[in-house]
Amino acid sequence: MLTKILIACCLVATTVMFHAAALMIMLNPVLRLTWPLEPRFLPVTWLLVRITWWLIVIHLVEIALWALFFWCVAKKDGKWLIAAMHFSTLTGGSATGTKDTQ
């Protein structure tokens, strides 16, 4: 039991470290802007759309990390579904898996 708790803590720590590193890499060019960003609708909107796309990619990689964890440790079927539900907190009844994954 203690081993599983330690493994879960390592998984969470790895997820947080990946998230922080990816955000740092992604936002570094934005924070180093030498010219002021024009406060017009289109430039600001385009910047936020690109940041959102990168956040989605980051979260998909993190879901894959959780799926790898479930595949290696839990040995369950439907790894991607379980990882996506747990990572995105959809397990509150809004998403259900197959009979084997519930």
Q: What is the count of distinct domains?
A: 1
Structural class call reads mainly alpha
As a percent range, the share of helical residues equals over 70%
Query: Looking at the structure, what is the overall shape?
Result: elongated
- Let me know the largest β-sheet: none
Order of helices and strands: HHH
Explain what the structure shows.
Helices cover 72% and strands 0% of the residues. It is mainly α and 102 residues long. The protein has one domain (2-29, 39-87). Helix 1 packs antiparallel against helix 2 and helix 2 crosses helix 3.
Short description:
72% of the residues lie in helices and 0% in strands.
Outline the fold blueprint:
Layout: H1 2-31, H2 41-74, H3 79-87
Helix pairs in contact: 1-2, 2-3
Search tags:
3 helices; 102 residues; mainly alpha
